[in-house]
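A favour, since you know our structure tokens better than I do. Would you make up a two-line entry for one protein for me to read? Write everything out right here, beneath this request.
=====
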Amino acid sequence: GWTDSDSAVLGVNTTNNNFEFNDPATNISEASVRDLGSALSDSQWVMDFDTNFSALSSGTTDGALIWVGISDAVQTTTLGTQDMIAWVFSQETSSKEWGADDLDGGSFSAAIAHQSNENLVINTTYYWRIVRVSNTAYSVIKYADSSRTIELNRVEGTVSATTTGLRYVKVIINGAASANNIEGTINKIRIWDGITNPVNQEVATFSDD
């Protein structure tokens, strides 16, 4: 199952089985991790998941961020030093933007590596796909439908070929004490290893509703 650094901030709600996150507008850096058991391919894999924000309240200065992706590190207490490929959402005073982010032996900052220039809103289900297409390239794609046939937007990312050994599904939330608040859910996580274009008949390597 999932290992949470603080289940009051993020983790699976055992009552409804939803993965929930809630940045309480304080200085936090928390994570939840699930071990796939072995590392994914260093050049080809796909991760699907859905998000829905129930609250996005802007503060005055610093932002709050959430990352969802695959990491090589199991730590759940801080942003930490790690390799990771991720979707990211940043809640700032004037923007609520998503993008793509990655690490090669580093730690995340408040700056999104690859920006979408598109804001997100509350009470809307968003359908996401992260695709590692080679050892140095990946995409984060936003779809209009759960079957992921209608693409709405995508962000291309470049990553070091030494970003390897990714085996932990990870959600990280990082907040500041400036009344920025992010609340919502993550559902229907699916991961396919060794391919870049899953179709309905291909069984996912990992599934978590």
Summary: DSSP finds no helices and 15 strands in the chain. The CA atoms of residues 7 and 206 lie 22 Å apart.
